Amino acid sequence: MPEPKHALPAGLTRRQALKLLGAAGLVAAGAAAGCKSPVPGADMAPSVFVAKAADYTVDLGASLRRGLAELGLGPTEIAGKRVLLKPNLVEPHAGAGHINTHPLVIQAAAEAFAALGAASVTVAEGAGHRRDSWLVLEESGLGEVLAAEGLPFCDLNTGPVHVVQNLGGVSRLGDLWLPDALARADFVVSVAKMKIHHWAGVTLSMKNLFGVMPGSIYGWPKNVLHFAGIEPSILDIAATVRPNLAIVDGIVGMDGDGPIMGDPVAAGVLVMGRSCLAVDATCCRIMGIDPAAVAYLRQADGRLGTIEAARIRQRGEDPAAVRRDFALLDYVPAHRGLRLAP
Q1: Which of 3.40.50.11440, 3.30.870.10, 3.30.70.260, 3.90.960.10 would CATH assign to domain 43-335?
Q2: Which residue, among 46, 22, 341, has the nearest Cα to 181 in the 3D structure?
């Protein structure tokens, strides 16, 4: 883990320093709350970039910068923008790097956006299983990285919220409550982990958006969303939030009984694109999974974008060349029939 670049203020714990950074970042953002208008229409010919990364010691920043360039993202689009990075922080398991988005991926993403002239970069998450997002932040190792880089963290489970129209209309959730911090961002990035999921089949950049739903409204572990149906809720949230970019950490992913109890699997890739749906479909193919067999991806096809390989402009590595079949469990209904043909 990198050494902190800034000493902590005298008398402050790391958690207190992170909270102060978070408050300062949110004050600096300053814009009035209100949901961004969704991107009109679905991109039916999106680009997805795949980079090899053998482990977390390689130059992740170079891979992400190349990916951004391949996707046409440069200073013209990012300069002066408030960027929000939304990692996958599930459980405070120290040393279990296959559970949460790796801290060094977040660090590399923050540096890449700063280099493009972003006005600010904030890391924000509403941990799903634990009420204390700060505990998950610290034990995941991300807190140390944020403190070292002077990056603010925002707990999306608490704080002011506002109601927006549910633009998906698939579940019975009705209107959605979202954090004001999400609305203040100009550019939202879902920085997910590549994992098998016990109930949904896979959890990638779209399922990662459960973490933007405030626990103060939707409970723990976001039980309201579960009661409304995991897959319909994924579709509604993805259609409403519409992240500007998805990055999936597949350097070490999780197979088997994910998203918490599974085993680490070294897939050795970073996957990124402007369409969460196309990114997730590409990730599935890398995992040896047919995206059309994942119910919520199939339902999103044609509504939020495309899952068809022929329509996705692949950049970087060929997904077939980096395929690493993730283990599926025969006794889990959501895993049956997912395997992609050779």
Answers
A1: 3.40.50.11440
A2: 22
